[in-house]
Write a structure and sequence with these properties.
Shape: globular
Bound molecules: dihydroflavine-adenine dinucleotide
Largest sheet: 7 strands, antiparallel
Number of domains: 4
Radius of gyration: 22 Å
C-alpha cells in the first residue's frame, strides 16, 4: 500500500509557503489529474493502481525549483522531475514501488533563446525538441541541432540520456553539442558549468535523468545544414530482396559519409529504408548507386525539403501527408497506445541466414516492430569516455524494439517482445549486453534500496554497466560527491559509489 499521506503534511505546508499556490496541484485539486496526465505518453502508467505523486508543482522560475528541493530535503520527501514525460517506464511521474514523492513538472520553463552570431542557443528543459528545432530554424534556416525524431520529446530527459537522431553520424548526439547548463543540486543551489565543475557537467550529459539534480536549461552549439536537404523512404518486401539489402546495409550504413543517414524499420514482412541527406538529390542518387545499388534508389524517390520540414516528416506526415512545420509546436500527446521498448547494439553484422529467422518473428501474434539506426561517422570518432554514452567506436547500429497494443491486449505483445529479445541475444553485443538509457527498460535491473537513504552500488551495476559500460564507475563516483544522501533517486538512478562489503 502507499504510505500515509499524513507523513507529508510538512512537505506540502513548506511548498505552499514558498511557491505561489496557482503553481501547486495537490491530489485534492480538481485539475490535479489533468495536469498529471498532460505529458503522460504511455497509458500503462496512468491507471488506478499507478503510484502517483503527492502533488504536482509547475515552476515558472528557478527559485521555485530550489524551494521545492529544500522542502523535500527538510521533510524527507523525494522529488521526481518531468520535462516531456516520454520516459518509456514513466519514471518521471510515477514510482514502480509504493513511495511518497512530489512531482516537478518543468513544462512552464520552455524558453529557447538563439544567439545567431555565436551559433548557440539556451534552451530550457521544459521545451520540446520540436520547439527547439522550430526556434532555431526560424531564426536561420541554415542552422540546426542534432537530436531525436519525435517532436514532443522533452529537452530535459532527452539531453540527460544522449539524443540519438538523424544527424548523429555527422554531428554526434545532442550531448556532444552541449556547452553549458544550469542545474539545481541536492542542496538547492543553482549552478552553471563553472559552478558545478567538469565531473558533474560530464555526468549530466548522458548519465540519465533524475540522478544528479534538476537541469533547468542547456546552452547548445548549433550546427550547419544546407538550405534544402533530401529525404527518401523506400520499402522492400522479402520478395523484393529486403534480406539482401538489409544484410549489406549493416556494413554500408555505418560507413557512408556522415552527411547521409539511412535507418531501417522492420515490421511485417518488409524493411523500410528511410534516409536523410544533407545535400542534393543528384549527389544522393550517385552515392546510393555506388554504395547500395540493390536498393534501386532513383531521383523519383528524392523528397527535397528544409531540414525543419524533415524533422516534422518522420512522425507527423502519417496524419497530415505533408511536413507541416507548425505541427512541431504541438505538445499534444495521446493516451491510446500502450508501449514497451527494449534496445540492443550490434557490433558484428548479422548473417543473411539469420535475417530469415528474424523476419519470421514478425508473423507472430503480438509482433511489434524494430528500428535500426546506424552509428559510424563522427559517432565512431568520439572516445567512449568523452561522455557517459559509451556506445561509440565498433558499434554498427542500435536496435530499438517496440511492442505496442491498445486496451487490454498487452500480454501477446509483451510476451512477443521478451521472447524475441531473448532470441536476438545470439546476434548482439554481449558482456555486457549493451542498452541505451533513453530507451529505458526496467527489465534489465532496478536499484535495491538498502535503507531509506541509499541504494547499493551493486544493484546499480547490473543495469548501469549495460547502459554506461566502464563509465558507470565514474558516474557512481560523481553521484557520491554531489548527492551522497541519494536524494535524487528512482528505480534506475545512479547510486552513490560506496565500498562493496
Ligand atoms: P521525461 O520527462 O519522462 O524524463 C525522462 C527521465 O529524465 C526521468 O527519469 C526524469 O526524471 C528525468 N528528467 C527529466 N527532466 C529532467 C531534468 N530537467 N533534469 C534532470 N532529470 C530530468 N530517444 C532518442 O535518443 N532518439 C529518438 O529519436 C527518440 N524517439 C522517441 C520517440 C518517442 C515516441 C518516445 C516516447 C521516446 C523517444 N526517445 C528517443 C526516448 C527519449 O529520448 C527519452 O524517453 C527521454 O528521456 C525523454 O525525455 P523527456 O523529457 O520527454 O522525458
Amino acid at each position: 500500500s502507499v504510505p500515509s499521506l499524513a507523513s507529508s503534511d510538512g512537505f506540502l505546508q513548506c511548498i505552499r509557503e514558498k511557491i505561489p499556490s496557482e503553481l501547486v496541484y495537490t491530489q485534492c485539486n480538481t485539475n490535479f489529474t489533468a495536469v498529471l496526465a498532460s505529458s503522460v505518453r504511455n497509458p500503462k502508467f496512468f491507471t488506478n493502481t499507478t503510484v502517483r505523486p503527492l502533488c504536482v508543482v509547475t515552476p515558472t522560475h528557478a527559485s521555485h525549483v530550489q524551494a521545492a528541493v529544500l522542502c523535500g530535503r527538510w521533510q524527507g520527501v523525494r522529488l521526481r522531475v518531468r520535462s516531456g514525460g516520454h520516459d518509456y517506464e514513466g519514471l518521471s511521474y510515477r514510482s514502480a514501488r509504493p513511495e511518497v514523492f512530489g512531482l516537478l513538472d518543468l513544462g512552464n520553463l520552455r524558453a529557447v533563446t538563439v544567439n545567431r552570431w555565436e551559433y548557440t542557443a539556451w534552451v530550457d528543459s521544459g521545451a520540446t525538441i520540436g520547439e527547439l528545432y522550430y526556434a532555431i530554424a526560424k531564426n536561420n534556416p541554415e542552422v540546426a541541432f542534432p537530436a531525436g525524431e519525435c517532436p514532443t520529446i522533452g529537452v530535459g530527459g532527452h539531453f540527460s540520456g544522449g539524443g540519438v537522431g538523424m544527424m548523429m553520424r555527422k554531428y554526434g548526439l545532442s550531448i556532444d553539442n552541449i556547452l553549458d547548463a544550469k542545474l539545481v543540486n541536492a542542496n538547492g543551489e543553482l549552478l552553471d558549468r563553472a559552478g558545478m565543475g567538469e565531473d558533474l557537467f560530464w555526468a549530466i550529459r548522458g548519465g540519465g535523468g533524475g540522478s544528479f539534480g534538476i537541469v533547468l536549461s542547456w546552452k547548445v552549439h548549433l550546427v550547419q545544414v544546407p538550405p534544402m536537404v533530401t529525404v527518401f523512404s523506400i520499402a522492400k518486401t522479402l520478395e523484393q530482396g529486403a534480406i539482401d539489402i538489409l544484410t549489406k546495409w549493416q556494413d554500408v550504413g555505418p560507413s557512408l559519409p556522415g552527411d547521409l543517414t539511412i535507418t531501417v524499420m522492420l515490421s511485417g514482412q518488409q524493411a523500410a529504408f528511410r534516409a536523410m541527406y544533407l545535400g542534393t538529390c543528384n549527389s544522393l542518387v550517385a552515392t546510393m548507386g555506388e554504395q547500395l545499388p540493390e536498393l534501386n534508389m532513383t531521383s523519383a524517390d528524392c523528397q527535397p525539403m528544409t531540414w525543419l520540414q524533415s524533422t516534422a516528416l518522420s512522425f507527423i506526415t502519417f496524419t497530415n501527408n505533408r511536413p507541416l512545420e507548425e505541427a512541431l509546436l504541438s505538445r499534444t500527446t495521446s493516451l491510446s497506445t500502450f508501449t514497451k521498448v527494449k534496445s540492443d547494439y550490434v557490433t558484428r553484422a548479422i548473417p543473411k541466414a539469420a535475417w530469415k529467422d528474424i523476419f519470421s518473428w514478425f508473423t507472430m501474434n503480438g509482433a511489434g516492430l524494430i528500428v535500426l539506426e546506424p552509428h559510424g561517422g563522427l559517432m565512431a570518432a568520439i572516445p567512449a569516455a568523452a561522455t557517459p554514452y559509451p556506445h561509440r567506436s565498433g558499434v554498427l547500429y542500435i536496435i530499438q524494439y517496440i511492442a505496442f497494443w491498445q486496451g487490454d491486449g498487452g500480454t501477446a505483445a509483451t510476451t512477443w517482445l521478451a521472447s524475441f529479445y531473448d532470441f536476438m541475444g545470439h546476434y548482439v553485443s554481449s558482456n555486457p549486453r549493451q542498452a541505451y538509457v533513453n530507451f529505458r527498460d526496467l527489465d534489465i535491473g532496478q536499484n535495491v534500496a538498502a535503507d531509506d537513504v541509499s541504494t547499493t552500488s551493486r544493484s546499480g551495476k547490473v543495469w548501469g554497466e549495460r547502459y554506461f559500460m566502464s563509465n558507470y564507475q565514474r558516474l557512481a563516483a560523481v553521484k557520491a560527491a554531489v548527492d551522497p544522501m541519494d536524494y535524487f533517486r528512482n528505480e534506475q538512478s545512479i547510486p552513490p559509489l560506496r565500498p562493496i562489503p
